[in-house]
Amino acid sequence: MTSRISATVQQIPKSGIRDFFEIVQTMSDVISLGIGEPDFVTPWHIREAAIYALEKGKTSYTSNLGTPRLRSAIATYLAQRLQVDYNPTNEILVTVGVSEGIDLALRALINPGDEVLYHEPCYVSYGPTITLAGGRPIVVPTRAEENFSLNVADLEKAVTSKTKILMINFPTNPTGAAISAEKLAELARFCEKHNLIVLTDEIYSELTYDGATHHSIAAIPGMKNRTILLHGVSKAFAMTGWRIGFACGPADIIEAMMKIHQYSILCAPIMGQEAAVEALERGALSVIKMRNEYERRRNFVVAACRDMGLPCLMPQGAFYIFPNIAKYGMTSKEFALQFLQEKKVAVVPGTAFGASGEGFVRCSYATSMEKLKIAMERLEEFLKERK
Ligand code: PLP
User: Residue 56 contacts by C-beta under 8 Å, 6 or more apart in sequence?
Assistant: First the structure.
């Protein structure tokens, strides 16, 4: 019998992270370094703003674009943080997380067969969302030897007359790589040369370390008109469950994205939007506190890995390390499975983030220092047993 599931959906794999965590669910007392979400609860003043909104009876739909108050808070926040000005009336769309923003942007732009470049290892949704939108995902590899930076030379090899979009994500999930202002300027010139639209996922932009400043490609002169900036409150404000993101870009593209959003989602939840206003307007101190704690943990886990002889780059942002486990003679999936079964610590096989993740595992340090210490002790035991 021919399948009743669409050929396109059959073509896309299930997320490697989900597969793995179905196994974790069946086990008890596992320390999870697997899931990419803050271990902090949303700061109290933000939760309180949502409770207050509910008390006032704010339970309705909002404008499809998002509440004017939130759009104006987003415009102010981005102008201050990233030095890029968006008009809240027609250049900002509030989405259900950055996840929806990625999907809308791709669906609004792609004609069948258009090619989309993106760097790998990368967030699990990029390839499948491009396929679902009818595009052709074109992977551009990044390498540990080059700090997982994205090279224009590699992009030049991959670009064709069918390329329409370049997707970038700095700081990067899963490698923690950031990008310098100079490299970003090179990417901008590449996009201008080949007339590409840039989709920039800056969900981790507040979480940069060692005093580094995050730069957005949207702020480079001449780039705003060809860039869709995707951001949201999930990571930096510990608000994954509120499902609020925002897409900012040229009015014609935002209008096209809004059309899809209007028919498929209608609007992001009003309680989440109310909470996001509070986060963006008054959450800076909470973000700094959490960021400082991530930096302390990052320094600890990287030093611990290096002490036990595991090659591990110092990530410059996000909350993941991506150590190289290749010398233990196992695939990254075998490594993660055996480590889970023998030591009850969950890490994600690097291949969940694309084929170029082979030889690596992703460990999130968005978990308490106590748990990280135990996890690192268990990792050391596990590696010693394989010497
Ligand atoms: N983009 C990247 C790079 C991510 O790592 C994630 C979540 O892990 C998302 C987007 C999803 O963000 P949101 O919760 O805003 O949908």
Answer: none
